[in-house]
Amino acid sequence: MESSLATLTITEAAKKLAAKEITSLELCRACLIEIEKNNKSLNAYLEVFADVEEQAKAADARRAQDEREGNVSHPLLGIPVATKDNILIEGRHASSASKMLENYVASFDATVITKLKAAGVVFMGRTNMDEFAMGGSTENSAYGPTKNPFDHTRVAGGSSGGSAAALASGMALGTFGSDTGGSIREPASFCGLVGLKPTYGAVSRSGVMAMGSSLDQIGPFGRTVEDTELLFDTIRGKDALDGTSIDAGFYPKREPTKKIGVPRHLLANGVDQDVLAAFEESLKVLQSQGYVAVDIELPSAGLALAIYYIIMPAESSTNLARFDGVRYGLSIKGETLAEDYAKSRGAGFGPEVRRRIMLGTYVLSSGYYDAYYGKATLAREKLRKEYADVLATVDAVAVPTVPTPAFAIGEKAADPLSMYLADIFTVTANLTGNPAISVPMGTVVRGDKTLPVGIQFTAAHGDEDTLFKLGKIATGESK
Predict the structure, then answer these.
(1) Domain that residue 221 falls in
(2) Deepest in the core among 47, 50, 51, 69, taking most CB within 10 A?
(3) How far is CA 75 from CA 79, 114, 263, 426, in A?
(4) Mean pLDDT over all residues of the chain?
(5) What total number of domains does the chain contain?
(6) Which residues carry out catalysis?
(7) Could you tell me if 145 and 155 are in contact, meaning their C-beta atoms sit under 8 angstroms apart?
(8) pLDDT band for position 324 (cuts 50, 70, 90)
(9) Residue 98 maps to which CATH number?
(10) pTM to 2 decimal places
């Protein structure tokens, strides 16, 4: 029985906990059994916390106290969750999957952690990721790649691949990641999960290691849209520690149009035919519930990858400048200060991080700033306006989350550009700040393996409610 508890949704588990059918201790032990069975092969967790059972017992005691005092417990009380290795938990290691921060211990809680602690979750551990969130496959981790639970020869997606694999394999009931250009939605698609990139500012970034500050958002993975919505509602809201954060009601409510915009001009090339067929079937499900799919034009969307791969490295190189071998992190001494920098950063950062730092430094350098970064910023504003205009006429924009199912480990490692192309449909929401969700839309077959694929919906700023509504219809949660 214990092991089967690990397959519950959060909603199901919360009901059983409230009805005293199970305890948090039993639930967490079920996940620990799955960790023992699966983590060595999947490499989803970098660390499983030693005090999981103590946390679970404390959650059970808190629930009993709530009952004695006549209080209603938070639905997440006692639920086992896992967090990406770039989200700070006081007193715990947080390395961003990099040798640069291998021994770093967080001195404070990220705001999302503070909120989750208030809700009473049990933290199972920290999950693997691409180093400093730079990658789309979790192959760039300094501690080895995370493997896909559906096929161990394939990637779990990235950069939040560890969080996705942990949830998909029963090693937690909910997980959290960060999304800079699709880093939640792509692994959600590859691992058959729901993944949300919230509106920029909807979730505080305080206590989360920055990659691209104007692009990053923290978001949840769930087995269902309902679970994902609950996790999001728990962590959202304005935070005095993050000046870019916003209140839940910051954007006005919108009247539904019952229209879904489909930019078919973007789907003509590069999308696998069976993925496209699954996408069309998902649209039919929405149409059966009264929605109309309309063709839309987003002229600048074809430039989104080019815009993103100028702005993101520029912001990343600036954020990572703090890791210099002097203040904190890995420090290797040379004969001069310049050698200190070079040796520390050369040993501490992996190849992909070094590549992006160099690219970002280049586009920000004298003589190239206006030619690259300046133009990318202008193009970003044009793209944002195009999305705003389109989303004034439709409820959401729909595309396949990724053009393909999960690819083989090592398949794209030697060709960074082909790896970057996997982000073609996801980077746009980060550039524009819109919320976007990936939900399962079926499976495709590769060899002897059946692999999940996802559909992505993008809505207007602050309109996560529409994403949850569409996601529930597309996945059959809302009948």
Answers:
(1) 2-235
(2) 47
(3) 8, 16, 38, 31
(4) 96
(5) 1
(6) 84, 159, 183
(7) yes
(8) confident
(9) 3.90.1300.10
(10) 0.97
